[in-house]
Amino acid sequence: MLKINTLKIYIIIFLFIFSSQSWTKADDIYQFEIEGMSVGESALKYFDKQYLKDGIVDKSTFKYKDNKFVSIGTIKNYAIYESVGLIIMPDDENFEIYGLEGALRFGNNIDKCYEKQNIIEKEIDNLLGDKVFKQDWDGSYKYDTSGKSKVKYIDYIFKDNSSIRLVCYDMDKNFADPTDQLSVVVNSKEFMNFLDNL
Prior knowledge:
Largest sheet: 8 strands, antiparallel
Low-confidence stretches: 1-25
Order of helices and strands: EEHEEEEHEEEEH
Structural class: alpha+beta
Number of strands: 10
Strand order of the largest sheet: 3-4-5-6-10-9-8-7
Helix content: 10-25%
């Protein structure tokens, strides 16, 4: 897939790093990166094939409905995030990336999560303006059957239905993983269409 490297935008926690390019053209999800990776690329550019295959079958890997997509958690010496999730199709030999999830953990401090979420929101607002549809929503975390864990979403939806999502997870202390977390997510149109039809 053809990419214009000089137009890529690096999502970081405190600010966006800009070069001398005009960012008024930044209206394509493929121009956004998390830890140097972007959707549409092959994960093989960054990870060994066996590592990815092992990740697909790992018991901690999140599997979406009908095993259509999986989210492989990767932990490296990343510059910004503590971990990055790769959304791929488990039977795709090219290991194309359909979504990226950069995560930061905040222990039991959801206010810190909201603070970081707000900082990133302002940066994206300044960058994208009215080029995308923006919506905020919150509710219960659907994988916590107690209903005590909560989520707060800020979505930026592009014309083709691809998206950037900023999500704070306010986890109940009795949930399997009680850690409050921020996810900065870049989703392809294919993965968003899948999610919309769950």
